[in-house]
## 1
Amino acid sequence: MKRLINTVKDHSGFYIADEEEIRAGKASDVYFSRSMKGLSHDQEVVAEITSSSEEEWITFSGLKEVLSLLKPRNLTISALEEGEIIGTRDSGGIPVPFITIEGKYSEIGEMETAILGLICQSSGISTASSRVYMASYPAPFYSFGIRRMHPAISPMIDRAAYIGGAYGVSGILGAERISMDPVGTMPHSMALLMGEEAAWKYIAENFPKGKRTILIDTFSDEKESALRAARMFPGIDYIRLDTPRSRRGNFPNIVREIRWELNLRGFSNIKIMVSGGLDYESVSKLREAGAESFGVGTYISSAKSIDFSMDIVSINGTAITKKGKYSGKKDVSRCNKCHKVKVKPSELHIEKCECGGKLELLNRKVYESGKEVINPKSDSDIRAKVTERLNSMIIAGKLKN
């Protein structure tokens, strides 16, 4: 124990890995570096990343960071587009390769831990965000959850939440990285320090139209406070409820009651925003009750990671893998007619679906010989594609019901 303590670097700052340490493989599991030392010679491999998640669909994200990590390594990478909404298995039950990496094992092995970490957590957050989008539609929701996670990864959390469908994010740095202005209302501390009505006045007089949101549940009954705020500042845009769980009772009914009273007294222009411990199920119920905007935190930022794994499927041109996996390089396609996803061996070059439709390739080459070979999309463009697909899923679900 004494020897171990003496070799540990004194660390008085934050317990995070910097970019240099991640690229050097120091944020990886030790057995990969040990394996590298035991190999007598390097070999050409094809490694693919699949998921064992049982989610009906996921929103894939994190690819941008994976490509950044692997620069300038001499590899060829094919992948689904970031923001692709897809099941983890095709229509026949074959696992979907989200990323395929080809090259020397020495260029890949020690990076496996970091590669997986970059997409597992990000995709989990994006997927949770997409589920909230579907629950709140067409009302907007905002990601307020970075306080639940380590601040070092707050930009990643905000980006993943935004890609998944969030209309905005609360983090200053996260918003900066996705070229947006951060979104926020007023904290309870403002009401405590200034006095509730003084805080309301400040928001009403200093925030731009469309963003004047006042928090009404610091001290009094929600209905009483909502009506008092509406009478004092009839031009505000939103009242916000962030009522503690211990005081909520039936939260949707509180929202219904406030909406009724505001409408009855001529304040139908004032919308209701809710926040605090929300998930997609509670958002759906509150939306039905009359809430028109949502702040969602922990459910998105602390979302369950998507369980991706990376496995060798070919060595020196020969298809081989471990048990439980499918060997050989594969293509992922979606039929433009029946919309089924198909995973097929790459060498078969199948272009037609059984239904007669055309199979459109999803896992395209994105990186070769140390550089990206496609023009990366902006985060806003990725989000636009995600929300377009989610909107079509919402419409299809309504028609089905």
## 2
Amino acid sequence: MQTAAILGPVGVMQLELPPAHEQLLPGVPWGRVGAFPTPAYWAYQVMSKRVLGGPPEYKLGKTLSHEVAACLLGGHGIPAAVGLAAYASLRDQGFLEGTPSEQQLLELLQAPLTVKGRKIHYRFARQKARYLSEALAHLSANTPPVETGRALRDWLLQLPGVGSKTASWIARNWLRADDVAILDIHILRVGAAIGLFPKNLTVERHYFALEELFLSFSEKMGVRASELDAVIWYEMARSPLSTQVLLGNPLPSPKVKPAKQRQSNPAQASLLI
């Protein structure tokens, strides 16, 4: 058994996890709680988030149409801040209500956006305007199923420009769903690093097989899949060093060597979420 402390606002909570050598899933040991990116490390991060910040808030929009727009305007090749700025621009000008035309959306998406004090041009404006116009029209004319995340995800796949990852992202956000997984590059890198995802499976061809592995992983760990993928995403997105470790690149050596090496304390593990 390995233990770690979570320093909460009202005291210290002791977290007990299985021994590092014990198998969480076949070929996937728990690992040490203080060793990035082991399953024990992620279990600690999820529990810390619960104690220190409460459950994460996933929703980006107030309606499902808004949620679809926010996720459709983000994704591959578009920085999160830029996608959210484009979404906010359309929302604040009232163009996510009803069924705006492709041309109306295109004109707005081609206008410069202010992101962190800089003027930015949104990429793929023409393509996204077409996708979003058709998606909003489809949502206006139909009632999507919301009984489960998977039912909503599968329904969303019929929308133009919405693939498995984007559909899962929308379903997770809107329903706080734990029966789908957002397999972005960060989740894929972590899964490959710990031996969860076989090398012969690719997200393009085997999305749902990889999803089942991730859902089993979170279930065995005893945490919600929605929490786990959010925690992994936030840490990996905010910490370039974490990405470098997973890519196998050497980290820069410190300029000043510490006089005394200290043993890492799991209780002081950084919470980068």
## 3
Amino acid sequence: MQAGFLNKLNSEIILEDYEPPEPGDNEVTIEQKYTGVCFRDILTQQGFFPRVSLPVIPGHEIGGTIIKKGKNVKDFNIGDRVSSLIYVPCGKCEFCLSGNENLCPNKVAYGEGRNGGYSRYVNADERSLVKVPPEVPEETVPIAACVIAMLYHAIGRVGKIKKGDYVLITGAGGGVGVHAVQMVKALGGHPIAETGSKWKEEELYKLGAEYVVSPEREYNKDVKEITGQGADIVLEDVGIATFSKSLRSLKTGGRLVVIGNLKPEPVELPLGLIILKGNSIKGSISSTREDLKKALELSKSQISPVIGNKIELKDINDGYANMLDRKVLGRLLIKF
């Protein structure tokens, strides 16, 4: 069997022969049909994450069927279908003990601090896992935590969406954005999709976007025209290129929830505007097991996986290139 390895930063993913070790006492071995490819994988390759232990098997979008388990694993059995968080929480800190394990300072990310998903067989810690209902499609299983649960956390828990809220989603044609459109609809909001790719607009409408705006215009003005006063929530998934317009798209008292991009680039922050309009800016990171359970429930009928392409592991570097060139609508999956 082969797995993809990142052996040094700013280098291509290399396929090497690999046999996963036996699972540890608190681990299971998962057989995957698919694993997801996230833009964070590219940022990891480019060196933007300090906790990368090289060489490493990249990928944190993990899920499948348990085929082995360690002696201490009590809550999961061989044959269970599971989805994994993108990290292993410590289970001991104040955040883990309060159910906010996504903020755990000691968490270890799959594909960075330990081997991840670019392999058919993956060893995962039981603290990362949630059982998958039978109604959930196989393509959803690996992306449930990083995409769908992350969006539930950002829009529902951090953004505190209410029924009828207008939500602007930047980068709406990407692997996160297409699912954000569905999440906003599922939670009772009105999604406004921003995309710079004209060819993605029709599909965004099909997914439930009520309006589509373009970064080629001052879309903050378009948003105010659509809503009358501005968006209740902006889900900022792009970063420096859209941040200023996103902030100006908010209504008085609106919330800007930042989920991307993780590059350490400064953005314009007009303090007077924020103060006078009483706006809030919040970061949202990852998801918890409770978020993941909710995401899987929503995935039974309300949120469908939007898959731009399914590729072989050997084509991963071409997959990265297509993502960077914005040639993928939705999520990219590796099939095993």
## 4
Amino acid sequence: MAKTRNEASEGRTRTCIAGGGEAPPAGLIRFALSPDGIVTPDLAEKLGGRGAWVAADRALLTRAVARGLFARAFKQAATAPDNLIDSLDAALEKRALDALGLARRTGEAVLGFDQVKDVLTKGKASVLLTASDAADDGREKLSRLGVSRLGDGLLQHRGFSSAAMSAAFGRDGIKHAALLKGAAADRFRREALRLDGVRATENTAA
């Protein structure tokens, strides 16, 4: 059976056209060129044709657009829309929130302060999510517990509001959640880290 583009890229490195460094695809964003020469984010890494890779870093993305580096990478005329980075931001946010919905559907999401505390205590969590508008004391208690039990193996994210988390999980009033180790958590980790880089924020920490 033929491998998909995504499967074929596993274990390989790509060169960032703006920074020049090589890195695994997990920390990069692939762009493809539409038939009419428009630079298009390919977050699923499935579009055909030559790809151009840029690190998930707002400064490097801005440099790639400002210096016309996409045209050089594609070896032809390439137009980067004025809203390229903003549209990329929105697409990454959607993919991250979709991963939360996937975790709920597959039983890999744990919701609520007490339930999250329990899975952290047992060392079963891969991701700890705290709403950006949650109280500091609750966030700090869970964060300390998670670090003590899981150390660097736990990804902590606080970039989404309670309303956004509630919509993603399909339940009102969500301020604390955890993702168990699994495919949904792995997907969220990648998208959240890339989103943080594009936004030049520090809402995600390991």
